C-alpha cells in the first residue's frame, strides 16, 4: 500500500511537469528510515565513496552466526501433522473412549432382618444416643440488642459525690507553687556568659574511626 502511495505521488508530480530532483525518488523510497530530513546531514567525500573495504571490515560487518544447536522457538499452537489427522484409532482406543455404563440400583442392596427391625435398644444405648447436654448454670450468648441494652435502673441511677469528684478534670497550676517565680526565665548574665575551654571541648562531637 505504501508503494502505491509513493507511485501516485510520483505520477502526480510528473503530470504537473515539475522537474523532479535526482534524490527525490530515493528519498521517497527510504522515507520511513529517515528522520524526515530532505537534505543530507553532511557531504561524503569522493575518496570515501570510492574506498575499498578490507577483509577485516568485511569480516566484522558479517552477522554473527547462530549456534549450531540452536532451534527456533516452537509456535504457541501446535501444528497437527497430516498423518495425525488421517490416523485411525485402534479397537482398544475406541473401547476406552466409550463412557462406562454404570448400573444404578434403586432397591436396597441387602435385606434387613425382621429381628433387627423389631429390636428394642437398651437403656445404655438410649443414654449414649442422647446429645450432650449443657453444663449446669449455662446461659446462652446474648443477642446484640440484649448486649447493648441499658437497663431502666441504670438510666435512673444517680451518681455519688465521689463519682462527681472523680469525673471533674484535674486543674494543674503552672508556675504558681514553685519556690522561684522566675524559674523559666534566662538571666542577662547567663546570656552574656562565655563557655570555658573544657565546656567547648566537651561540646565537640566525638570523631570515630581514627
Describe this structure in words.
With 210 residues, this protein is mostly helical. It is 38% helix and 0% strand. It has 13 helices and no strands. The protein is flat. 0% of the residues are buried.
SS elements, strand count: 0
Give average pLDDT, whole number: 81
Rough outline: flat
Output the number of helix runs.
13
Q: Are there runs of 5+ residues with pLDDT below 50, and where?
A: none
- The residue fraction in helices comes out at 25-40%
Alpha carbon gyration radius = 52 Å
Reading the helices and strands in chain order gives HHHHHHHHHHHHH
User: Structural class, judged by helices and strands?
Assistant: mainly alpha
* Distance between the first and last residues' Cα: 76 Å
Kindly estimate the percentage of residues that lie in beta strands according to DSSP: under 5%
Which sheet architecture does the biggest sheet show?
none
Question: Gist?
Answer:
With 210 residues, the protein is mainly alpha-helical.
Key descriptive features of the protein:
flat, SPMAP2-like, mainly alpha, 210 residues, repeat, 13 helices, THEG
Write the layout of secondary structure elements.
Layout: H1 2-15, H2 24-29, H3 46-49, H4 55-61, H5 82-85, H6 91-97, H7 114-117, H8 123-129, H9 144-147, H10 152-156, H11 161-167, H12 188-191, H13 197-203
